[in-house]
TrEMBL record:
Belongs to the glutamine synthetase family. GO terms for molecular function: ATP binding; glutamine synthetase activity. Residues 24-103 form the GS beta-grasp domain. PANTHER family: GLUTAMINE SYNTHETASE, GLUTAMINE SYNTHETASE 2 CYTOPLASMIC. Pfam families: Gln-synt_C (PF00120), Gln-synt_N (PF03951). Residues 110-355 form the GS catalytic domain. Keywords: ATP-binding, Ligase, Nucleotide-binding. This is glutamine synthetase. Homooctamer. It catalyses: L-glutamate + NH4(+) + ATP = L-glutamine + ADP + phosphate + H(+). It comes from the Eukaryota. The keyword Glycoprotein does not apply.
Length: 355
């Protein structure tokens, strides 16, 4: 794979194509104490066929805001793995849970709780689809492609736009799409968003814990692809202040009962339960979400729960076709672009199915 920002990408190609002599590279990724993604790589002796074949590893948690310096070892327990689109071959990327040395989940390990909830709710077959919005910046922290020292024209022509001056960095977005497909992430689509240099990809439908895993992997792949172009990715819900759209992670959710004929009753029952725990959900629906959920720019207000059919200004939107056919799914429009997908899917299942 060429690396565009390198002065000599062909040189990189030479090393990338060297024979690994039967060895496998396994890149472990995890979520750190600030919600960012970290990674380190180890060498394996053979191709991995099952996650149980992967070793437990560790890292210095004092350098990632996950442990104190005097007791800094944090353990990485493999939970899932995907083919590596950057190194190719039998090389893999491993999603790992973080555990403290006393046997308790690290403060950043929301996957552990989520997995338990999904197991308890497995008979309901909870499905999720998350719409990840994000913003691209150049190396100088300016929105990618925006005029230096100025601003592009007002929002309008950029959403699902085509053509120079309307879309920016399509090559990065296409590369990320292909990387996700190669890795086996259930990516279902992409589109340019309302603000210039803002994009969205959708992951799902995924059942249970697979939603969090695929979203974490998709984010990691995006960061790595953008790294090759020397471009930064922001998941901040209000990446550019002013009269510009914020960025969310609209979360589509359904159970088997919702997807069957007559499922509107189950959808309405779930919305009623969600309305009673609005503050608990907002607490895990992303940092700085108050900057986005203002009641403007296609959002509901952070302090008020609302729902409606085809209403993009509501907390919970029922798609028009769902209301017309009487079954399907609901869309929670409150989650910010910087959510931990494990936390969001966990609390949705807890609120609607387990409490």
């Amino acid at each position: 794979m060429a690396v565009p920002f390198l002065k000599n990408p062909g040189l990189y190609e030479h090393y990338a194509n060297l024979d690994q002599k039967g060895k496998i590279m396994a890149e472990y990724i995890w979520i750190d104490g600030d919600g960012e993604i970290r990674a380190k790589t180890t060498t394996l002796d053979k191709k991995v066929k099952d996650v149980k074949e992967l070793k437990e590893w560790n890292f210095d948690g004092s350098s990632t805001n996950q442990a104190e310096g005097g007791n800094s070892d944090v353990y990485l327990r493999p939970a899932a793995f995907y083919p590596d689109p950057f190194r190719g071959g039998d090389n893999i990327i491993v999603i790992a849970e973080c555990w403290n040395n006393d046997g308790t989940p690290n403060k950043t390990n929301h996957r552990h709780s989520c997995a338990k909830s999904m197991q308890q709710a497995a008979s309901h077959k909870p499905w999720f689809g998350i719409e990840q919005e994000y913003t691209l910046f150049d190396i100088d922290n300016k929105p990618y492609g925006w005029p230096k020292g100025g601003f592009p024209g007002p929002q309008g022509p950029y959403y699902c736009g085509v053509g120079a001056g309307k879309v920016y960095a399509r090559d990065i977005i296409e590369a990320h799409y292909k990387a996700c497909l190669y890795a086996g992430v259930n990516i279902s689509g992409i589109n340019a968003e309302v603000m210039p240099s803002q994009w969205e990809f959708q992951v799902g439908p995924c059942e249970g814990i697979k939603m969090g895993d695929d979203m974490l992997m998709a984010r990691f792949l995006l960061l790595r692809v953008a790294e090759d172009w020397g471009v930064k990715v922001s998941f901040h819900p209000k990446a550019v202040p002013g009269d510009w759209n914020g960025a969310g992670c609209h979360t589509n959710y359904s159970t088997e009962a919702m997807r069957k004929e007559g499922g509107m009753k189950a959808i309405e029952a779930a919305i009623e339960k969600l309305s009673k725990r609005h503050s608990e959900h907002i607490a895990v629906y992303g940092t700085d979400n108050d900057q986005r959920l203002t009641g403007k720019h296609e959002t509901g207000h952070i302090g008020q729960f609302s729902s409606g059919v085809a209403n993009r200004g509501a907390s919970i939107r029922i798609p028009r076709h769902v209301a017309a056919q009487g079954f399907g799914y609901l869309e929670d429009r409150r989650p910010a672009s910087n959510i931990d997908a494990y936390q969001v899917t966990d609390i949705m299942v807890q609120t609607t199915l387990l409490l």
